[in-house]
Amino acid sequence: MTADREFYMRQALDLAREAALAGEVPVGCVIVRKGEIVGRGRNRREEKQSAASHAEMEAIAQANEVLGSWRLEDCELYVTLEPCPMCAGAILNARVSRVWYGARDGAFGACGGVVNLFMEDFPNRPALVGGILEEECRAVLSEFFSGLRQGRDKLT
């Protein structure tokens, strides 16, 4: 079971690294249903100039399309950084059954970093597990922001 969680989080990490190479904050996300990845997403806010183009939003949209439904009740979401309030709201509305995240976000995290929307009295709250490959997830973010501070706009 642990191997599966790490496998899927590594898929999300690959997407985060892809985002970093494109000059985006490196966050990646995959959505899994019955052992199959049905949605992939990475941050594309700069590329699309859209505040809503977070990794989770992109992965949810792809999973909706692949499955032909807005309901993702039997799906699990793996994301490298704790979801923000917007993404947590989308996860709640999509009825995702479980969320696995890597690094905690003390600035915008809505799963415990700042607030925990999944503890509120919403219907269909997902199970939540943090800290999956946390050090690797945090390292990708640290490297990206270190590069920005050194004047690079992209990681190479």
Fold blueprint:
Layout: H1 2-21, E1 28-33, E2 36-42, H2 45-48, H3 55-67, E3 75-81, H4 85-94, E4 98-103, E5 127-129, H5 134-149
Helix pairs in contact: 1-5
Structural class of the helices, strands and pairings?
Answer: alpha/beta
What's the overall geometry? Answer: globular
* Major beta-sheet overview: 5 strands, mixed
In terms of DSSP E residues, the strand content is: 15-25%
Radius of gyration: 14 Å
What would your notes on this structure say?
The chain is an alpha/beta fold and 156 residues long. Helices cover 40% and strands 19% of the residues. The chain is built from five helices and five strands. The protein has helices at 2-21, 45-48, 55-67, 85-94, 134-149; strands at residues 28-33, 36-42, 75-81, 98-103, 127-129. The radius of gyration is 14 Å and the shape is globular.
Brief write-up:
By secondary structure, the chain is an alpha/beta fold.
Name a few traits of the molecule.
5 helices, globular, about 160 residues, alpha/beta, five-stranded mixed beta sheet, about 40% helix
